[in-house]
Amino acid sequence: MKELICIVCPKGCHLKVDEAQNYAVSGNSCPRGEEYGRIELTHPTRVVTSTVRCTGGAHPRCPVKTSAPIPKALIQQAVRCLDGVELTAPIHTGDIVVSNICNTGISFVATRDL
């Protein structure tokens, strides 16, 4: 049995997920918590945030994030995709910085105008 704290809403329910019982979730106060607990143990994903070098803008680095959550096992490989990336201003929020990260179909996008 694994214990987690749900991060879907501000309540922070203490979840217990029983792997032996087909990932039965207890301790949740809403259906979203049950889904979170099950997915967190079967297929954990994260939105990855980072920065990349930028020239010609007001700031030397541009914040980026993945356009959707990626599998947790691919995070290190995804961040390595940003090595050597250097953007040139102007950059707009939502501009694709790196596309198809690790063949997932997910992109790194800019999160600030520069």
SSE series: EEEHEEEEHEEE
> Into which percentage range does the β-strand content fall?
25-35%
pLDDT averaged over residues: 93
**Largest β sheet strand count, sense and barrel closure:** 5 strands, mixed
What portion of residues is helical?
10-25%
Q: Domain count, please report it.
A: 2
* Class by SSE composition: alpha+beta
Would you state the CATH class of the largest domain? Alpha Beta
CATH topology (fold) name of the largest domain: CPE0013-like fold
How many strands appear in the DSSP assignment? 10
Q: Provide the spatial order of strands within the biggest beta sheet.
A: 8-5-6-10-9
CATH homologous superfamily label of the largest domain = CPE0013-like
Instruction: Please state the overall shape, judged from the principal axes of the Cα atoms.
Output: elongated
What is the CATH architecture descriptor of the largest domain?
Roll
Rg is 18 Å
Total of DSSP H or I helical runs spanning 4+ residues: 2
Q: Are there runs of 5+ residues with pLDDT below 50, and where?
A: none
N- and C-termini, Cα separation: 47 Å
| Oligomeric state of the chains in view | single chain
Provide an overview of this structure.
There is one protein chain. The protein has two domains: 2-43, no CATH class; 49-110, CPE0013-like fold, CATH 3.10.530. The protein has helices spanning 31-42, 75-80; strands at residues 2-5, 14-18, 24-26, 45-46, 49-55, 61-66, 70-71, 86-88, 96-98, 108-110. The longest helix has 12 residues, at 31-42. The model has no long low-confidence stretch (mean pLDDT 93). 16% of the residues lie in helices and 33% in strands. Strand 2 (14-18) and strand 3 (24-26) form a beta hairpin. With 114 residues, it is an alpha+beta fold.
